[in-house]
Amino acid sequence: MSEAPIFHSKYSYHHDGKAQQLDIHEILVKRSRLGIFLSYFMVVVFLGTNVYFVTTKVFCILILTFFEVNIRSIWSILVCFLLAKFLHYNPVKKERVVIMPAFGVQLETHYWSGRIVRLFVPISKILSSMLNECVTPVTCYWSLALLLRDEGELMLVFQLIRFVQKLQPPLKMLVPVWKALRAAINCEETSIT
Amino acid sequence: MDQQRKHTILMVSDFFYPNFGGVESHIYYLSQCLLKLGHKTEPDLNAFAFKIGLVVVMTHSYGKRTGVRYVTNGLKVYYVPWRAFLMQNTLPTFYLTLPIIRTILIRERISIVHGHQAFSTLCHEALMHARTMGYKVVFTDHSLYGFADVGSIHMNKVLQFTLADISQAICVSHTSKENTVLRSGITPDRVFVVPNAVDTAMFTPSTCRLSCDEIVIVVISRLVYRKGADLLVEVIPEVCHLFSNVRFIVGGDGPKRVRLEEMREKHSLQDRVEMLGAVPHARVRSVLISGHIFLNSSLTEAFCIAILEAASCGLLTVLPDDMVVLSEPDPGDMVHAIRKAIVMLPSIDPYAMHQRMKKLYSWHDVAKRTEIVYDRALQSSDENLLRRLPRYLKCGSWAGKMFCLVMIVNFLLWCLLDLWQPVESIEEVPDLVFIRNEHEDVRIFVFLRLNGFRWRGMDCSQWVFGDAFIPSSGSGFCNRSGKFQWISEVAFIFRRVFDLRQRIRFRFVFRNGFGGLRLFCFVIALLLCVLNSVRFESGVSLIRMLVSFD
């Protein structure tokens, strides 16, 4: 049984429940083509400004203005690097949460390159799942986290932080995942007691 | 009355719990009473349920206390992680607070923004941004300010800017209204007077009546010039000399404490004047009930809650004629007033005073009156930027033009932010209900959020990112000199931004074909930076070596 997908800006949520007793929740991330183009354009621009001065023998003489080149290059590198990263450094294709009742929860991250990173958390280790409101100096968003036994830190279900690029799925996609996690944890607790 | 809530209010101030003071307790009590009022208009809630989001408070973070917290009855407080720079005030950045304020206003579906205290920079910025975005704003002024010194002149100009385009203003007394109107040039008909109140449930008289053999006069205030500490130094020895059965208890701390101690030594009044030092608010009541008379020697007060607290505890002090003895700020007159008070003392009934206080000053009454102000504010018309700008021009010949420019830039930045992060992408907070002592699940949910459990890495990396790239943190690129220092800077920053768990994500860049191009670019960029930061001679020789075709 799978429910209708939810779409919101660049995220889409799919749920596939009861497939071989597993509960699978997926959040897919769209990439904007403009972002990709702009990021490579920026890379080309900063390469151009620096390579121009270094690889051409004739223009070596211009390096005599050492101080200007230094500050300008570093600044241009910094700005272009930041812009490139900011506009498009989002290799994540989708985030998947596979809930195996009475066994554990598997958190998967699929990248556009095809690589998959998996993290398994046994059900006995999870104390609870919770929705956090995170406040930063410029924005405020929701995140889903697991509270683990004997650990001082929360484990994020959806890895939200990249270098500059943020994955912030909306609350209406996090709520079904949260409910399913709670249901799985509660079933486990009642079966123990 | 429709089922939708009438107002959703955002209280903004730099001053809130865990800081303690008059403004903080005003915001807290007013918010609690507004929540209860709002609760009454929601028939589907039972006695233990409070709808979260009717009143939201926004303030800056206090130490580790940052993020969203819930205080009593589900009052939601945003501790925005902006650092305080002076006396609990946020650094005034003019436009940098626009994104977070816009996000909070949209996600909480705020209808009115209520700012507190002229001294609070966050309040002024929030009101400015709220006006730009078209929200109705209300401002409450809690203090009196002068006109002559540099600080006051600057503060008054800022206040003039904020109040030039405000919906309504509230002052805590008529004197305060006069002061505010003169300082800011706002028309008096837009200023309401809503006095403060006192928590009479907390300040109750003592169960056993104190005997009148020995009369105890209590003084609790900050020992500063403005609170008349110098007057106290003159009055106390005089009264002790005239009345042998009078004792003083002085609570509070400040720069003038030294003078009081000296006075004690000089007149050998150690057994008759007790100095308690700073008294925490929880202990104020116990100090008050140990006395008969409360003495307040302030030179100026916008509204003195301390007097209300004392009267609520049944002490004779400053209030309606039969509860009050007023005097001029002059030692001789004060001594005369104390004599009158001592004579009146046997006829005072603390419980009767307490009951009168309960009726006269109550936070529920304050909340109702504030709601009337909100209703009036909501009735004012929506205006666009062009119609609002002339109000700023009136603020002064140069200042007016500068203020207009500030508002225009603010408007443009808001439009830009609208394009960058459209309103649709900001999710509204769902209607949550805070239930006390009810369902276990909800309690756990709220309990965890009350403790503000945070993933250290997450908060840290958000903040550290901002920290790492702002030169003031000391990790700016231009600060260090020497070759290859830049590399260590970059590595340092990357180490800080990513914690151990995150490095696995970054390592991806080096491992697969798709990221190979990016990797190549990154390496080239790094190489270029190295080349640029090495010394001139070795750099040129290195370059010559690289590019020589000989």
From TrEMBL, chain A:
The keyword Hydrolase does not apply. The keyword Transferase does not apply. Pfam families: PIG-H. GO terms for biological process: GPI anchor biosynthetic process. Keywords: Membrane, Transmembrane, Transmembrane helix. InterPro entries: PIG-H, PIGH-H_dom. GO terms for cellular component: glycosylphosphatidylinositol-N-acetylglucosaminyltransferase (GPI-GnT) complex. The chain crosses the membrane at residues 34-55, 61-84. Residues 97-159 form the Phosphatidylinositol N-acetylglucosaminyltransferase subunit H conserved domain. Pathway: Glycolipid biosynthesis; glycosylphosphatidylinositol-anchor biosynthesis. Belongs to the PIGH family. This is Phosphatidylinositol N-acetylglucosaminyltransferase subunit H conserved domain-containing protein.
Automatic annotation (TrEMBL), chain B:
The chain crosses the membrane at residues 398-417, 515-534. SUPFAM superfamilies: UDP-Glycosyltransferase/glycogen phosphorylase (SSF53756). Residues 60-149 form the PIGA GPI anchor biosynthesis domain. It comes from the Eukaryota. This is phosphatidylinositol N-acetylglucosaminyltransferase. GO terms for molecular function: phosphatidylinositol N-acetylglucosaminyltransferase activity. It comes from Zingiber officinale (Ginger). One of its GO terms (biological process) is GPI anchor biosynthetic process. Keywords: Glycosyltransferase, GPI-anchor biosynthesis, Membrane, Transferase, Transmembrane, Transmembrane helix.
